[in-house]
Specification:
Largest sheet: 3 strands, mixed
Oligomer: single chain
Keywords: Membrane, Transmembrane, Transmembrane helix
Shape: elongated
Helix content: over 70%
Strand order of the largest sheet: 1-3-2
Order of helices and strands: HHEEEHHHHH
Pfam families: Zn_peptidase_2 (PF04298)
InterPro entries: Zn_peptidase_2
Protein name: Zinc metallopeptidase
């Protein structure tokens, strides 16, 4: 029982810690202006145009840290603060989302694979726990548990594939900001901190998903022995 509680504490603490870190880091560097003095929207537009992505739009979206790139509409969405204000955090986030647009333009394999997994992951994630709960109720429903594990595995694969996509977008973001002079040499370290903190949320989500999948696999294997 003690081990069970420790396990659940761990999978609860990991994502909470990651969210705390990204929010604190973002809050800190959203108050630090850049030497270039460009808003997030201007940073995004500059990088897009420099890469020939004139067809990609940059739009404001409500919320905090709600920034994302929509490959269907070819639009970079930036939260209000990042869209209008000049800050190290805003520049880093804007450049990161444009990094996804560049991936899309270049047909980055991991991004294409993740896009292909989206419908599968959505369906499997919604169905997985139905089968898992039924399978956990009784050993007579072990086959249901196995189906749930297989469905969950598709969602876990999506989480894992997301990691190289996000890390690559951050690498592209730093390269673009530096080469275009959007941040100074002294601001590079701060921008990396913002991007690293954001990446940790994806790492945490993947780690929790893998741990939970392994736990269920062990339960199934022990039943079959």
């Amino acid at each position: 029982m003690g081990g069970f509680l420790i396990y659940f504490l761990i999978i609860m603490i990991i994502p909470i810690w990651a969210q705390f870190k990204v929010k604190n880091t973002y809050k800190k560097f959203s108050k630090v202006g850049t030497t270039a003095g460009m808003s997030g929207a201007e940073v995004a537009r500059k990088i897009l145009d420099s890469n020939g992505l004139y067809n990609v739009q940059v739009k404001e979206t409500p919320g905090i840290l709600s920034d994302h790139y929509n490959p269907m509409t070819k639009t970079v969405h930036l939260s209000s603060d990042n869209y209008y204000k000049s800050s190290v955090a805003g520049a880093a986030v804007a450049a990161h989302e444009v990094g996804h647009a560049i991936q899309d333009q270049q047909g980055y394999a991991a991004l294409r694979f993740r896009h292909a997994l989206v419908p599968v992951a959505n369906i499997s994630s919604n169905l997985a726990w139905i089968f898992i709960i039924i399978g956990l109720i009784s050993t007579a429903f072990s086959n249901m548990l196995l189906i749930g594990i297989i469905l969950m595995a598709a969602g876990v694969l999506f989480q894992i594939v997301t990691l190289p996509v996000e890390f690559n977008a951050s690498t592209r973001a730093m390269d673009q900001m530096v080469s275009l002079g959007l941040i100074s040499n002294t601001e590079e370290r701060d921008a990396k901190k913002v991007l690293s903190a954001a990446a940790m949320t994806y790492v945490a989500a993947a780690a929790v998903a893998v741990l939970e999948l392994l736990r269920l696999i062990l339960i199934f294997v022990n039943r079959e022995e």
